[in-house]
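Data card: per-record layout.
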Amino acid sequence: MAEHNLPDWTREFPGAITVCDADGIILSLNDAALALFADDGGAKLLGTNVLDCHPEPSRTKLLGMLRDGLSNTYTVRSKGRTKLITQQPYFTGGHFAGIVEISFVLPDPLPHHDRE
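The structure for this 116-residue chain is written out next.
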């Protein structure tokens, strides 16, 4: 298990949770993120820069998110499965502190409910 400062419930959360600071340094990976990124180094990614893990144009987009404290949410389809990826800024004392990325597989088909 990688050392991290995430609450205990996040360790076994069924989606990958990655946390980086405002400079892009990876601070935390839950168990699903460690498994997802095992071929890229797994726990060895802790303390490295998340920008080094992203090719263009993703790298430039992430750099802007870190600079401006922006969010990004999208889906991706790979190996017959659709995943939701959301990258959200987090704040400490009202100041931008970094980005949390949560990624998980969506059911197929995905139910949709309008609740207006």
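Known properties of this structure: The beta strands are 16-21, 26-29, 72-78, 81-92, 95-105. The chain has a mean pLDDT of 92.

See the next section for split statistics.
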